[in-house]
Amino acid sequence: MLKNRIKIASVLVITLLAFTACKSKEKAATPSVEESESMLSKLEEKIQGQWQLVRMECCSRRMMTYEGERLKYQQTITINKPNITFEGDNYPEKRETTYFLSQDEDKSLVRMNFGDEQFTYVRFEGKQLIIDMSHVDLQKEYYKKID
Q1: At CA 123, angle to CA 147 and CA 42, rounded to 5?
Q2: Residue 24: helix, strand or coil by DSSP?
Q3: Does residue 118 belong to any structural domain of this protein?
Q4: Distance between the two ends of the chain, CA-based, in angstroms?
Q5: CATH of residue 122
Q6: What is d(CA 108, CA 73) in angstroms, rounded to the nearest whole number?
Q7: Residue range of the domain that includes 45
Q8: pLDDT, tens digit, 9 for 90 and up, residues 55-66
């Protein structure tokens, strides 16, 4: 009987230690309003200009990656605050709209909100601008600056 109590106590202590270790991992500090505004301002400057689509990852259960000649269309985007223009060869149609940048609720992602109420996440990987629509249709577009 004593052995069973010791085993139960040991299991409880190990469980408690594991739970405490998981809880003690610190979350990244949430940036202040000033830090958030500064970060958005820097990103706003960085995304201005003309960008060429170089890679696309798309869609649903069968994820495919398209690069170079395999791209469905040659698309460029021109970002000139507060406007963004989508156009290119074999691109369905030239589209112009307005945009603004904001952060999601926990301030870990930057959203590009379009005039027609759609939004996408934007970020950089190295010098590539990534427009990430994976929350809608699992599509990610990778752009390189051309001007």
Answers
A1: 70
A2: helix
A3: yes
A4: 78
A5: 2.40.128
A6: 31
A7: 36-145
A8: 988 877 778 888
Task: Round to whole Å and give the CA distance between 103 and 105.
Answer: 7
Higher pLDDT, 37 or 116: 37
If you search the block for the tokens 């963004």, which residue do you land on? 84
| DSSP helix, strand, coil percent of the chain (3-state; round to 5) | 30, 40, 30
Q: How far is CA 64 from CA 23, 44, 57, 67, in A?
A: 38, 30, 6, 10
Residue tagged 């109420």 (tokens): 117
Tokens standing for residue 137: 């249709």
- Mean pLDDT for all residues in the chain: 75
Residue with tokens 């960008």, as numbered in its chain: 51
Cα 129 from Cα 100, distance rounded (Å): 16
Domain presence at residue 124? yes
Q: Encode 35-48: b = buried (16+ Cβ within 10 Å), e = exposed.
A: eeeeeeeebeeebe
What is d(CA 73, CA 91) in angstroms, rounded to the nearest whole number? 5
The Cα–Cα gap between 87 and 48 comes to: 16
